[in-house]
Amino acid sequence: MPRVRVEFTVEPFHEGELGVHVEAALESLLASGYPPDVGPFGNAVEGDAGPLLAAVAEAAAASFDAGASGIMLSARATDADDAGSFLAAVRPVARAFGGHVVAPEHMAEGAVPLVWRGRLVGGLQRPGPGDLRNGLANLIAQIEAELGGALADLSRVDKQRAVRLLDERGAFAIRNAVDEVADAMGVSRVTVYNYLNTTRSSPPPAPAR
């Protein structure tokens, strides 16, 4: 069931105070299990579409019974973009650890639940023995293919680019990744840390045109 966010304003508006018609709507939502966000110019509540909209309808009826002259409502779906962005952010980290993100119905035993706003939206399938190292090796292989050469053969500038790309894909979340990247590049650990500090303190380069 999709989630929605409903924003509503109850009229008449009394600056600096909540009229009984507004309080009636808020109390009705609270009683239904939907604590609203109360703002100076309107209110909002969020939840699964079906039960939430039913609760909003009850709140509107309570407000009119208490003397409201009008209620302005707007509703929008929140699931697709927000949950999708959350899962997209998790996937690179999962790949770096040799794991992967799966849909809720495909979760196997031992998967880590991924919950977004109180709803299960996926699972993080953890890697098996040896998969962490394979995950880092795969990331290095991807970067070498993108940059056109082994890490050790890249120029200093391209080594910095490689470190930036590895960092963006979560490689350095793997234990001892700095040591392994340093070995693959033929540089010291200190050099890799310097590359990391440089890339993390500066914006990514503009794409070539």
Characterize the structure shown:
The protein is of the alpha+beta class. It folds into 3 domains: 75 residues, 2-Layer Sandwich (Alpha-Beta Plaits); 46 residues, no CATH class; 70 residues. The protein is 47% helix and 19% strand. It contains 7 helices and 7 strands. Strands 2-3-1-4 form a 4-stranded antiparallel sheet. Strands 5-7-6 form a 3-stranded antiparallel sheet, covered by helices on one side. A hairpin with a 2-residue loop joins strand 6 and strand 7. Helix 1 packs antiparallel against helix 2, helix 5 packs across helix 7 and helix 6 packs across helix 7.
How would the blueprint of this fold be written?
Layout: E1 3-11, H1 20-31, E2 37-38, E3 43-48, H2 49-65, E4 70-77, H3 79-96, E5 100-102, E6 112-116, E7 119-125, H4 131-147, H5 156-168, H6 177-185, H7 189-200
Antiparallel strand pairs: 1-3, 1-4, 2-3, 5-7, 6-7
Helix pairs in contact: 1-2, 4-5, 5-7, 6-7
